[in-house]
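ERR on first pass: missing label on line 2. Operator R.T. fixed the label and resubmitted. Corrected input:
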Amino acid sequence: MTAKPKSKPLKKTLPLLILAGPGLLYFLINSYFPMFGVFIAFKDVNYAKGIFGSDWIGFKNFTFLFQTSDAWIMTRNTLLYNLAFIALGTIVSIIIAILMSELLTKLYSKLFMTGLILPNLISMVVLSLLVFAFLNADSGFVNHSILRPLGIPEINWYSEAKYWPYLLVLIQIWKTAGYGSIIYFASIAGIDKSIYESAKIDGAGKLKQIRMITLPLLKPTIIVLVLMSMGRIFNSDFGLFYQVPMNSGALYSTTQTIDTYVYRALMQLNDIGMSAAAGLYQSLVGFALVLTVNAIVKKVNPENALF
Amino acid sequence: MIQTRGERTFTVFSAVVMFLLTVFAFLPFLLIVIASFTNETTLIRNGYSFFPEHLSLDAYRYIKSSAYIFIRAYGVSFLVTILGTAIGLLITSMLAYPMSRSDFKYHNLLAFVVFFTMLFSGGIVPSYIMWTQYFHIKNTLWALILPNLLANGFNVLLVRNYFKNNVPLEIIEAAQIDGASELRTFFRIMLPLSMPVMATVGMFMGLAYWNDWINALYFVSKPQLYGIQNLLMQLMSNIQFLNSGQAGNVLGAESVSLPSTAVRMAMAVLGIVPVLFVLPFMQKYLTRGVIIGAVKG
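pass 2 clean. output:
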């Protein structure tokens, strides 16, 4: 303690700032620099002139974008898929959690849980191959081993857009429901067992206990998780909508989301303006949604608000 | 606890349904494992099946014969996963530590800076232009490590909350009264006391790197830099890619053609195997509740 009192604050904060330095620098580069780059959406980007030298064109990129049917299709798809994922995903996850907590031995629930989270750990590329094994037209399991023996005409899955809303919802639930049930499982495990005991003494059967005890006590968790996913309703999993349908052009009407559009406009059509405009549209609406949802959570359950 | 008859029925019902769901989760994996061991002609003639007529090791033999491509891809994936996770874990925890110190003047400011990145993003286009035009990472190993995956707000807050809730400020103060510097306190006290959260976050990061194919999709066009996922992706769209090397005729002159379908399935199996080692740990840490309720406050 030889340092003079005056230099003490700096001596105390500097080492901590140094520790924070590399991480901060990373966030600055990876997240904040691109935020300042949103002006690109208002430019007619020309690499020869450079990003900063390109001409300003105001809202032209946006007016072009919203004149196409693409804007409507990708917004509709993104929203509807997310709503389906949230609704079905929540229900299936809760059912799994309730059933799992009924199992008497720890070993079983562990085994089942391990099995159920496996789908969540694989990459979208591997997932797309799993799907391909089932759906490919000539030798896929569904056509070859289910439809053909039943005498149902085979389906060319990768060129029939109408089936994909069901397929993608099924695939997403298959991949995420087990993992999603963990948090509900933990909430159920945290419920005081004596409540069930007294309900039992009062003659309540299992189903009644679930309806009258488990579900009401899960309600705060459910509300918060649903609201939080509502905040991300403008975002989609790029891999699910790009790689799983094998980037098949015939399927765009039901598989195009904002994220796949941004990728295709930038990397395949080389249309930087459209891509940047769609990206900024997604970021801004997404930001507004998160703020709104947080305000709602704050009203419903202040403890669970994000900020 | 004595069970009534109704309860016993419900327990049995739960066990049966859970068993069926687990089988449902597992079947697709079984199908591709079996397909990877199926004879190519059988696969084409009879389709994918759980009970193939003829088994064969051709796919794996083929992979072995063009091993250099697969070993290189595995190498890239492992290298990127290990480097990315190590650096990422280090900078994530180093940033989380000052944030967890309520006696540190800027801890709230840091928390806001990190948190805001979870709310708003500049989008892909500015990010793509920045990485390619100003950092020139295209077709380098850095393209697989740096963009997006190295650290994220969720993980930083997770670690911050663990530090805050599990290591009391008194321990840190005691260490510093004993003359330990901040660096020493962090590495010798904070980290050793926080192994569960380090393991959890490390696992998340490792999985994200192992499973990533999007960075390469944007930034890498050289096949030499493809990890296992992107090699798999390339094989899906173009199995002939394998022939670009000398791998073509290794199976012998009489072999009909390369077992392209089975090879794809075998590749997928090889991509999943490393993930299987993580699975038991994942289950352990997740149920221990490191994550649950952790991203708050």
